[in-house]
Amino acid sequence: MAQKDQATIFRRASHVDLVVGPGQLARLPALLEAVAADRGPRLEVGLDGTGRRRGTTASFARFDPPRTPRLREVPHQAMVRIMFGCDKFCTYCIVPRVRGPEQNRPAAEIEDEVRRLVDGGCLEVTLLGQTVNSYRDQTGGRTVGLAGLLERLHGIEGLRRLKFVTNHPRHMTTELLEAVRDLPKVSPYLHVPAQSGSNRVLERMRRGYTAESYREMLQQIRQMVPAAAVTSDFIVGFCGETEADFQQTMDLVRWGRFKNSFIFKYSPRPATRAFDLYADDVPEEVKRRWNNELLAVQNAVSLEDNQPFLGREVEILVEGRANRR
Ligand code: SF4
Question: Hey, which of 84, 130, 135 would you mutate to test ligand 1's pocket, going by the most ligand atoms within 8 Å of its Cβ?
């Protein structure tokens, strides 16, 4: 919101002293001090690297300062951002607009951070990116993709588990699946949002793939990594979506046998292309019904697929006490 609305926030809320975008988060302490010293309202929303495709900038490192165990909620787990921004421009999404173009951190820098985390007692690292599997570091003229990065991190002694989210279906390469298959520390967990099972809706969303190509990708995952737990995201009630479109999404969820799906009802976001191009014309009660129906199908699939775990012994990582008892 800070990145999108910028100075408008001062106009809407006169008590606000400071508006900070994601590119300046690491400077927050100094910015707060400046405001506390009564140096007036401040607007800090620059996104270094805008317009420089795949270039890495200093702001990126500043955005994600090295983490210390003291700052992490769970000392043996950590998230490490390996890229920032997105080049895809799905019509419903605000991310490219507010986070700028895709920027990738150098593999050596990521490796350093992971080593420090492991030295501090971390066992599990999750690599983060909006489209994490399009990661590409070209420092020094050599290209390192996500598969290469996983291989590099896999060699770190003491690290037990590696995960990565979120994947884009178009970048799920054979090389990456080979890495997931062949590197024991890489969890066979793949979150690959489909968003819809209808080509008409996917086209309107500008997702850049078809329902058929998504299914082919899923088949390749099943062939190469049969034990993979694949999860997905779905949006129901996108602009212009019909009952027939929705039934195609239901078919995909039944066929895809996802471990879990995160299902969202579409809501229009100002400053997205969908907001300007299309009417939010699916009634709220239809969105709610579709949401419930899709959730019911997914829950049935999840329950069935979890049954084989009854009585099995598996290695687990205790994350802490659950909020719900
Ligand atoms: S939905 Fe994901 S891939 Fe699409 S624009 Fe947003 S961040 Fe990028």
Answer: 130
Query: Is the Cα dihedral 14, 16, 18, 19 positive or negative?
Result: negative
Specify the residue with its C-alpha closest to ligand 1, atom 2.
Answer: 130
What distance in angstroms lies between residue 63's CA and the mean position of ligand 1's atoms? 20
- Cα→Cα distances 238→13, 22, 104, 271, 282, Å: 32, 28, 31, 16, 7
- Name all domains of the chain by residue range, CATH numbers in brackets: 62-187 (3.30.750.210), 188-306 (3.30.750.200)
Question: Residue 180 to residues 151, 163, 175, 318, 324: CA-CA distances in angstroms?
Answer: 10, 9, 9, 23, 32
* Closest ligand 1 atom, residue 166 Cα: 2
What is the pTM (predicted TM-score) of this model?
0.87
- The pLDDT tens digits for 205-252 are 999 999 999 999 999 999 999 999 999 999 999 999 999 999 999 999
* Ligand 1 centroid, distance to 98 Cα (angstroms): 12
Q: In terms of Cα–Cα distance, which of 258, 178, 287 is closest to 225?
A: 178
